[in-house]
Design goal:
Order of helices and strands: EEHHHEEEEE
Structural class: alpha+beta
Low-confidence stretches: none
Number of helices: 3
Radius of gyration: 15 Å
Shape: globular
Strand content: 35-45%
């Protein structure tokens, strides 16, 4: 899942950020600790917000989910809100994972900064692996 979560307040960060969420408590703590920085509640272009899908009550991300799975948040910053993303393969090497993400860059973009949370559900057995994000680019011609 991909959520645009632009900054609400200033935070000194480097991107990409990789966050492993292994429990309901960690999920709620992440939201609580970052809600002043990221706009988890905003619906961009009519899409559901991250709060609607990931942090709402009744979500699939309950204690039962976290018994066997974890959520991987990859947080990216883009110089244009027009850049979109496509998660590709997650490749397991000895003790590490590589997550391939393609940045889809339009020929003409907007001049607004954008932060994105890419949410990937994974098997909890992979929790101790180091994770690397590999960013690829695809340039899209405007129609």
């Amino acid at each position: 899942m991909y959520f645009r979560t632009d900054l609400s307040g200033y935070t000194e960060s480097s991107y990409p950020k990789i966050i492993k969420i292994k429990s309901v408590r960690e999920l709620n703590d992440y939201f609580e600790n970052n809600k002043d920085y990221y706009q988890f509640h905003i619906r961009f272009l009519g899409e559901p917000s991250m709060e609607d899908v990931v942090f709402s009550s009744g979500t699939a991300y309950n204690e039962e989910f976290f018994e066997s799975s974890l959520l991987l948040f990859i947080v990216l910053e883009e110089g244009s809100g027009s850049v979109r993303h496509r998660a590709g393969d997650v490749v397991q090497n000895s003790g590490s994972l590589s997550v391939n993400i393609t940045r889809v860059i339009p020929e003409i973009g907007t001049a607004d900064m954008a932060q994105w949370h890419i949410v990937i559900a994974m098997d909890k057995s992979l929790a101790d692996n180091d994770i690397a994000v590999i960013l690829n680019e695809e340039h899209k011609k405007d129609d």
